[in-house]
Amino acid sequence: MSDAILNQLRDIIQEDIGQRGLRTDPERNLVNACPDDFRAACHSLADHPAPGLAVVTGFYIPSATPPAGETDGPLGALYLARALVPLGIAVALVTDDFCTRSLEVGLAECGISGHVPIVTLPTPTRAQTMSDADYWRYFDEQKGIPALTHLLAIERVGPSHTIDHVPAEHRGRCHTMRGRDITDFMSPAHRLFAPRAGLTTIGIGDGGNEIGMGKIPRDVLARNINNGGLVACATAADHLIVCGVSNWGAYALAAGVSLLRGKKLHASLFDPACEKRILEIMVDQGGLVDGVLSKSSATVDGLTWEHYSNVLPRIRASVQ
Questions:
Q1: 81-117: per-residue pLDDT in tens?
Q2: pLDDT of residue 1
Q3: Which of 150, 158, 178, 206 has a CA positioned 20 to 30 A from the CA of residue 236?
Q4: pTM score, whole prediction
């Protein structure tokens, strides 16, 4: 019965509300590429006797004035912390310096600042001087939770493929959905997602250019997503959650874990008004912008709040 509800949650969040092209090809697309991964991700966290989760987020929007992190990703990362810490799951949030403030004010508003550490990743310039081992060691020393069992990326760009089909100057580079190269503005968090014994990785994304999407063949991304062949991320994850809006993946994952653990999430987690108030604070005090509109706005992916937040009561109805 629980797995049927998990599949229902997955279906709710896979509505292509932003018309990204998640199902352009009815035969092979982003939605049917990994149909069991959402359920597997929920079980992986819920069934672990002592899970410790680090959530990596933050997507640089160079077209904003000034450039800033986008609202999709940090809001979902904060949601996971709000939902999972009361379930006994240790959570750390990981991001770049352009998103740190938004997470700080969000945690403060939710009253959990002292329970959720924030790791600010090395700057791109500093990371260039660090080996992969040094980069991991820096993160490991800063993470602030006793044991790390799971690493999750939500709306976190990763490098493209390095094959001949990708123009030479774009190989192994991080891109926006429009194909703009933002590699020099992003700490290379994909380094943390290299296979490591005892660590389960999860990716949440909505466009093909995010960490985790390397689990889907590049030709599938190219066939379905505009600019997909260029922006497709080559970094895979053990479990990939594809959704219409990345934050939705966090909402559903938290609900799924609570269901499997036999515990109810606080009612405020399903309240669109509460979620909007938190987002407004992260925008006003933390400097986030809507990634589609490229401007300061308490919205996500250019959607009206009603369309965006409608998934919350639907998720609540499913788990109840």
A1: 999 999 999 999 999 999 999 999 999 999 999 999 9
A2: 63
A3: 178
A4: 0.97
